[in-house]
Design a protein that fits this description.
Number of helices: 6
Radius of gyration: 18 Å
Strand content: 25-35%
Order of helices and strands: HEEHEEEEHEEEEHHH
Structural class: alpha+beta
Distance between the termini: 31 Å
Largest sheet: 10 strands, mixed
Number of strands: 10
Length: about 230
């Protein structure tokens, strides 16, 4: 997926090809200031959406010049900054084979609401620095803990931060859910299951306000808004 970067005067791009997931100074500031952060991955690529929301305000929110600069994309009454990242999804495919990096037909989405109250996210953003490289690591049906109910699936999201030769890994989200409301879903081939591909669901109301258009996740957000 092509990078969708918003250069600011302090970014100082060199013209070289940067690795996907490289953070600029304005990316770090936006991740720290965001009300909501959405992580999503599909066959079209992966990205992190840092959002400012007007949901908590009784009147339309007025954004400062700095906020508009950090969050340059408008989503109705909200603001967004999109950061393209690399990602991998591990899990068992429909052929019952384990795929360590690229689970065929898989897509994943999760949301952190009220970022200021999320201790893990606050810790991560306080450690982030410009020129860090971040990557999403999704794991479907993780067997870290035994799950007695066969209808439940334990999905995980880890975020890695690479700085020079050093690398940190953070457990960002763990969800235990049934189909089709899982954090990670795999499209079923009609000839195999006789059913249409599994829907991508996001369980946060904030996702319906901050539009997801990375790959085919826009359908999930539209569906969520209709269901609510």
């Amino acid at each position: 997926m092509a990078e969708d970067r918003h250069f600011q005067p302090d970014d100082d791009p060199t013209g070289a090809i940067d690795p996907i997931g490289l953070l600029y100074r304005s990316d770090v500031y936006a991740l720290r200031a965001a009300d909501t952060v959405i992580f999503h991955t599909s066959g079209a690529g992966a990205c992190i959406d840092a959002c400012l929301s007007s949901a908590a305000f009784t009147e339309p929110r007025i954004y400062t010049t700095r906020q508009q600069r950090l969050f340059p994309d408008g989503d109705r009454l909200d603001r967004r900054r999109r950061i393209s990242v690399a990602a991998d999804i591990a899990g068992f495919g429909t052929d019952h084979r384990w795929h360590e990096h690229h689970l065929p037909g898989a897509a994943a989405v999760t949301v952190i609401d009220a970022c200021g109250l999320h201790e893990v996210w606050r810790t991560i953003t306080s450690l982030l620095r410009p020129d860090d490289v971040v990557r999403l690591h999704w794991r479907a049906d993780a067997t870290t803990d035994a799950v007695a109910d066969p209808d439940l699936h334990r999905d995980e999201l880890r975020l890695s931060v690479l700085r020079g030769q050093r690398r940190w890994m953070f457990m960002l989200d763990v969800q235990l859910r049934p189909e089709p409301a899982r954090m990670i879903t795999v499209a079923q081939h009609p000839s195999v299951s006789g059913a249409p591909p599994a829907a991508r669901h996001c369980t946060s109301a904030a996702a319906s306000r901050c539009t997801i258009d990375c790959g085919d996740h826009a359908a999930a957000v539209t569906e969520l808004g209709q269901r609510r």
